[in-house]
Amino acid sequence: MSARAEILQRIAELLDGRPVRWADPSRFIGDYDGRDRTLEVFNADAHEQRGLLRSMRPIREELEAMAGGPVVVIFHTRAESSRLHSGFVTAHEDAAPLRDLARRIRERLFGSTIEFVRAGGKNGVQVELGNRSLTIVWDRQTGFDIRLDIEPFVDRDPDFRISDGERALLSVSMLLAEEAKDVALADELEGLVLPEPGAANPDANIDAPPSLGFEDQIVGQGMKQPPRTAA
Amino acid sequence: MYVTAHRVRTHLLEEGINAYLYMHGSSLWPEPPEPEEDPGSLANMLFTIDAVGGNHVRSYLDIVGPDEAPWSTIKLFFLQFVMAMQRRPFPWKCVAGPCLFRIDMELPLVRSWRNEVDLLYRACVTIHRP
User: Fold this and answer.
1) SS3 of chain B
2) Nearest Cβ partner of A206 from B36, B60, B107?
3) Fewer CB within 10 Å of terminal CB in chain A, N or C?
4) What residue numbers bound the domain in which B61 lies?
C-alpha cells in the first residue's frame, strides 16, 4: 500500500471511520498553496469539525512530512456529502465491514501487510504474511470470500465464504498465523500428482463423486458421536 | 484421538472449514478404530462456520491415532499416506503406522486437491494444538 493510501486509512480510523480522500487537484478551480495536498473529510457537520481536527493531531506531523507541507483539510457536511458525493460516500460505507476486518487482521497478525484492492468490481484486501498471501473480497450479499493466493492458474471457488467478521478473522488467522508456517504442506505436496488424466477429459480418470453424501451434525463437548453422518 | 476437518457449505451458501478433536484416553489398539464405531469423546471444536447441523460436507480429512502421538510423528505418517495414495482416485483411506487416515472431496475440489488437503490438514493441526 502506498504511504498516501496508508495514512488515509489511519486518518479514517482517527475520525471514527468517516470517508476521507485526497482531493483531486483537477477538480478544483483556482490555485492555492496546498492544492496537491488537500484532504477531504466527509460526513462532518459544522459542530464536529473542530473536534475532528483535534483528533488528527497525533499524526499531523507525520501527515505533513509525507505530503510535503501543511495539509489543507476540507470538510463536507452530511447533507453536502450526501447531495454531492453520494457515490463515494456510499461505496465507503459499503466497505465498512471490510475495513473493520482489515484493522482486526492487522492487530491480530503482527507484521502482516494489507493492501486494499478491487477484484471483480468488488472491494477487497490482499493480506500478506511471510511467504503466504490471501485475498478477501467483500460483498454485501455474500459476505467475505477468502482465497489463498496459490495456484493462480486454477479457476476455483473461494476457500471460505463467510458472512460473519469474527469467523472470517478466525479463518484468516488459521491460514496465515505465524505458527501456520510449521504446518504448511504445500512444499511437500508440490511434486505429487493425481491419476494420469485422460486425453479428452482431464477429469476422466478422477473418480471423485459430485457429492460425498454426508452432512454435519451438532455434537457437544464430551459426546461420543462423530460430527458427520450420511445425508 | 480422532481429529477431523470438514469443508461444509450451508443452505445460505456460506462455506468454511470446521474441525473437531476427540480423545480416546489411554486405550491400546491393535488397529486404530473407525471413527463411526469409536470416535472417542469430543474435546474441542473449531468453527469457521457457525451454523452447524445439516450442512453439506464437501470434503473431509479424518485422522485417528494414539492420544499421546506427537504431531511431528502424525505428519510423517500423513505424508507417507498421501504419497502412497496420490495416484488413486478418491476416497483415500489407509492405516499408516499407528494412524488411520481418510480423505475425500467432491469433484470440483479435486482440481486443486493439494490446496484442499493443505487447508484440511491446517485445520486439524490448529484444533489439535492445545
Assistant:
1) CEEEEEEEECCCCCEEEEEEEEECCCCCCCCCCCCCCCCCEEEEEEECCCCCCCCEEEEEEEEECCCCCCHHHHHHHHHHHHHHHCCCCCCEEEEECCEEEEEEECHHHHCCHHHHHHHHHHHHHHHHCC
2) B107
3) C
4) 2-128
Low-confidence residues in chain B, pLDDT < 70: 130
Mean pLDDT for the stretch of residues A134-146: 92
Domain count of the fold of chain B: 1
For residue A164, list chain B residues with Cβ-Cβ distance below 8 A: 50
Mutation site, B47, B72, B110, B111, interface A, largest A CB count within 10 A: B111
A212·B60 Cβ contact <8 A: yes
So what's the pLDDT on residue B1? 94
pTM of this prediction? 0.79
CB contacts, 8 Å: A207 with chain B: 89-90
